[in-house]
Design goal:
Elements: H1 6-11, H2 16-22, H3 47-56, H4 62-70, H5 74-85, H6 89-102, E1 110-116, H7 122-135, E2 140-145, H8 149-152, H9 164-167, E3 172-174, H10 183-199, E4 204-210, H11 215-220, E5 225-231, H12 243-248, E6 251-255, H13 262-277, E7 289-292, H14 301-318, H15 320-347, H16 349-363, H17 369-382
Parallel strand pairs: 1-4, 1-5, 2-3, 2-4, 5-6, 6-7
Helix pairs in contact: 4-5, 4-6, 5-6, 5-10, 16-17
The structure holds guanosine-5'-diphosphate (GDP).
Guanosine-5'-diphosphate (GDP) binds at residues 116, 118-124, 255-256, 258, 294-297.
Length: 388
């Protein structure tokens, strides 16, 4: 009889039920006594809890949501945001009604986009910037657009535990990134959440994103000021930063300017300033500034905020603030159309089936990509009823 020894090695990683099932003496080839499977282990979480929770939470009417939001009821706001994030058709219908009713009360906040690579100190800085904003008597909402949550299905940004000081304050609403769907979809939901937050009386909104991909463009198109957090000390600060991201920035701030790092931060500041001079003038007429600060030691925070205040005053004065908001409204209309067209298309069961077949034919070189695409599109346009 040959019993494979390596099986023992992974027994350690199994839970008790699996262990009993996988027990070596239960092997078909084993001739001795078998080990009883034993009793089923109870789940570690009370299964009734979920039911109890769902039973208690009822769906309100759009009017009730709006009334709660307008009163600044955080629980109502959170539930409305959950509706916005839901992909269920009936939730979306209700969410759109709530958004439409909140729109007249929106547009009132100063929206600030904050980006930087992982480790740049975004959460530490948001903690520090947020406290500064609160001290000035503002109400702050912290939202996020996190493209990586598409893959992980769990958000890494906006997590309350990452902003320890802020999360225990009143007048703060922290919401992680919506986690499902395309970047366009995730960004749209965040954009809609801004509307709800503003209707709830939040007059300052931070939208955080990781500075590594397309999400900056999405954030840029929903904020008034775009802040790029950078680090000094690598000696090649300007490398690896996409020119496009630098061009979007209204302010570049070099974090961790503390201890031994102060001089390096100053050097990086000079390098960034020189680099920015080579860029064409910004459409706002504002010359982007470069500052150093320390989020951790809360040094230079007031100066960063003064820069943002100055920018807002400058663009309100020259009319760019309004113009940009109008441009953004237009952008989101087209973005939403693009996104929803794609969703309608790819979610159609007939199209889904046809695409699988066409993909196979294209891979076998039995049909050209263009012919296949045309046939699928022709089929879509000839469909009588489009999915909801
Ligand atoms: P994020 O990934 O961009 O959100 O970055 P975090 O805020 O999590 O910060 C990454 C690391 O840098 C953490 O270990 C922080 O403690 C550290 N850090 C953040 N800000 C500062 C700062 O101003 N000075 C110093 N010395 N360290 C900082």
């Amino acid at each position: 009889m040959t019993l494979s020894i390596p099986r023992f090695q992974f027994l350690y990683s199994l839970n008790l039920n699996d262990f009993l099932m996988e027990h070596i003496e239960n092997d078909e080839q084993y001739a001795g006594l078998t080990v009883n499977k034993g009793i089923q282990q109870p789940p570690s979480v009370n299964p009734y809890l979920k039911k109890m929770r769902t039973a208690r939470r009822r769906i309100y009417t759009a009017g009730e949501y709006v009334e709660g939001i307008r009163k600044g009821d955080i629980s109502m706001l959170s539930q409305a945001v959950t509706l916005v994030e839901s992909n269920l058709y009936e939730h979306q219908v209700l969410a759109q009604e709530v958004i439409a009713k909140c729109l007249p009360y929106s547009g009132t906040s100063v929206r600030i986009g904050i980006t930087g690579v992982p480790g740049a100190g975004k959460s530490t800085s948001i903690d520090a910037f947020g406290l500064h904003v609160l001290k000035q008597g503002h109400k702050l909402a912290v939202l996020a657009i996190d493209p990586s949550s598409e893959r992980s299905k769990g958000s890494i940004l906006g997590d309350k535990t990452r902003m320890e000081k802020l999360s225990v304050q009143n007048d703060v609403f922290i919401r992680p990134s919506p986690s499902a769907g395309s970047l366009g979809g995730v960004a749209r939901k965040t954009r809609e959440t801004v509307v709800l937050c503003e209707a709830a009386g939040f007059d300052t909104v931070f939208v955080e994103t990781v500075g590594v991909g397309q999400s900056e463009t999405a954030v840029h198109s929903m904020v008034d000021f775009f802040l790029l957090i950078q680090l000094a000390g690598t000696g090649d600060e300007l490398q690896g930063i996409k020119r496009g991201i630098m061009e979007m920035a209204d302010g570049i701030v070099i974090n961790k300017a503390d201890g031994d790092n102060v001089e390096r931060a100053r050097l990086a500041q000079a390098q960034f300033r020189n680099a920015l001079h080579l860029f064409p003038p910004t459409p706002s007429g504002w010359q982007p500034q470069v500052l150093t600060y320390s989020g951790y030691y809360e040094l230079g925070i007031a100066e960063v905020w003064e820069m943002i205040d100055n920018y807002i005053a400058f663009v309100r004065e020259n009319g760019y603030f309004e113009r940009k908001r109008q441009e953004q409204a237009k952008y989101w209309m087209f973005e939403t159309i693009d996104e929803q067209l794609k969703e309608h298309f790819y979610r159609n069961p007939e199209i889904e089936k046809m695409l699988q077949e066409k993909e196979r034919l294209v891979l076998l070189s039995q049909e050209s990509s263009f012919v296949a695409a045309k046939e699928v599109l022709d089929c879509y346009f000839s469909l009588k009823s489009l999915p909801e």
